[in-house]
């Protein structure tokens, strides 16, 4: 037996997201906009999906996001380090401009879809393998009518979905990344079908314009009176 539905939810915005810095496994918390996104997104996702189990990356930004969803659904959240973002070694915390200046050839190769050589990054295959192993383990502990919600990170989620659809995570780049606190839904295929999962929704979020969602409402930045 296994869960029929798996929902992947990306974490809310951080200061690194706002500054376009490569986060990797740097353990950075949500910023003010990220907390607002997580709260609003949790309400929307709770209205669309009733979870049987909620598991999250143990990195703070994902655990905090999962906490809002757990509160909205009344469900506890379990943490699993296998759901962490892809590690990027020496590149973590840097902007694209900084990477281009310090590692011009490697950065250009990465932008073309190749692995970042000499940066100490995890390979796409390794990230996909640990993500799929974690999702499969948690899903297989559930029944066929159940829903598993996985709160993780952009690159890790994209690689997991690619692998679960039977595609090659090392070279196939046809699935776009998720916006902050947006989700994707996979449904289990019929018996003996290949691939075992189908993508039925992707990059779904709360009902806000993308500009407002990315920057947050004006009141977040208004100073409070003493």
UniProtKB/TrEMBL annotation:
Q: Which SMART domains match?
A: PGAM (SM00855)
Q: Which residues form the active site?
A: 11 (tele-phosphohistidine intermediate), 85 (proton donor/acceptor)
A Gene Ontology CC term for this entry?
A: cytoplasm
Pfam families in UniProt: His_Phos_1
Q: Which organism is it from?
A: Oerskovia douganii
Q: What's this protein's name? A: Histidine phosphatase family protein
* Top-level taxon: Bacteria
GO MF annotation terms:
phosphatase activity
Q: Which SUPFAM superfamilies match?
A: Phosphoglycerate mutase-like
């Amino acid at each position: 037996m296994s869960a029929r539905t798996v929902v992947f939810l990306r974490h809310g915005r951080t200061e690194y997201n706002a500054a376009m810095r490569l986060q990797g496994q740097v353990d950075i918390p949500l910023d003010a906009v990220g907390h607002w996104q997580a709260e609003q997104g949790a309400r929307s996702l709770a209205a669309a999906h009733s979870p049987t189990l909620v598991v999250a990356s143990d990195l703070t930004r994902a655990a905090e996001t999962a906490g809002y969803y757990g509160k909205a659904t009344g469900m506890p959240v379990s943490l699993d380090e296998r759901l962490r973002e892809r590690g990027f070694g020496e590149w973590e915390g840097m902007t694209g401009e900084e990477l281009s200046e310090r590692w011009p050839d490697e950065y250009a190769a990465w932008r073309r879809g190749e692995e970042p050589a000499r940066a100490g990054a995890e390979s796409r295959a390794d990230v996909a393998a640990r993500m799929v192993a974690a999702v499969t383990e948690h899903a297989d502990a559930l029944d066929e009518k159940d829903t598993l919600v996985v709160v993780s990170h952009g690159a890790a989620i994209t690689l997991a979905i690619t692998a679960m659809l039977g595609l090659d995570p090392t070279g196939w780049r046809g699935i776009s990344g998720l916006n902050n606190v947006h989700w994707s839904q996979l449904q289990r295929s019929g018996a003996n079908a290949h691939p075992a999962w189908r993508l039925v929704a992707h990059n779904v979020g709360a009902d806000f314009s993308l500009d407002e969602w990315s920057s947050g409402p004006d009141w977040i930045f208004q100073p409070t009176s003493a």
